[in-house]
């Protein structure tokens, strides 16, 4: 009976795990080979605030005034300096280039209320340095 099951797997074209032993798909004749320069990252860009290199652009945010990349920690520090906080409030990153002032409802800090949204990046604007990063990630 086990042999019959094994035969059914082969007959219906199902494969077991471990597809890594398949040969790579042949390159189409006339198609350009991927350029190594497009995959290899360039020199690191400098932070607009602290002027130190940013080695991981995927964690950087775009400065609202200049559009250049800044460290996440530098952006958080800049927002914290500008925004006055009441007792029990904290600043958190909620995504898409937006920070928020939140107040937690309990001691375990699992439920919270967003008091104010603090946009850091300009909404809907895609920076050139982020487009280059996106192209490198999609080529992997």
Give a written overview of the molecule.
The chain has 140 residues and is α+β, with helices and mostly antiparallel strands. It contains four helices and seven strands; from the N terminus they run H-H-E-E-E-E-H-E-E-E-H. The strands form three sheets. A three-stranded antiparallel beta sheet has the order 5-6-7, covered by helices on one side. Strand 1 (45-46) and strand 2 (53-54) form a beta hairpin. The longest helix is centred in the middle third of the chain and has 11 residues, at 72-82. The two termini are 44 Å apart. The relative contact order is 0.13. Mean pLDDT is 75; it is low at 34-40.
What tags apply to this protein structure?
single chain, 140 residues, alpha+beta, three-stranded antiparallel beta sheet, two-stranded antiparallel ribbon
Please describe the topology of this protein.
Blueprint: H1 2-11, H2 36-39, E1 45-46, E2 53-54, E3 61-62, E4 69-70, H3 72-82, E5 89-95, E6 98-104, E7 112-119, H4 128-138
Antiparallel strand pairs: 1-2, 3-4, 5-6, 6-7
């Amino acid at each position: 009976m086990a042999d019959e099951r094994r035969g059914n797997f082969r007959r219906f074209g199902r494969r077991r795990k471990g597809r890594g032993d398949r040969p790579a798909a042949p390159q189409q004749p006339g198609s350009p080979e991927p350029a190594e320069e497009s995959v290899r990252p360039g020199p690191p860009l400098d932070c607009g605030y602290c002027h130190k290199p940013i080695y991981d652009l995927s964690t950087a945010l775009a400065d609202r005034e200049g559009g250049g990349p800044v460290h996440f920690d530098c952006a958080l520090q800049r927002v914290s300096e500008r925004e006055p906080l009441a007792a029990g409030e904290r600043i958190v990153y909620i995504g898409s280039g937006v920070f928020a002032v939140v107040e937690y409802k309990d001691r375990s800090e699992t439920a919270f209320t967003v008091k104010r949204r603090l946009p850091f990046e300009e909404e809907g604007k895609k920076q050139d340095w982020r487009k280059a990063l996106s192209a490198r990630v999609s080529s992997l």
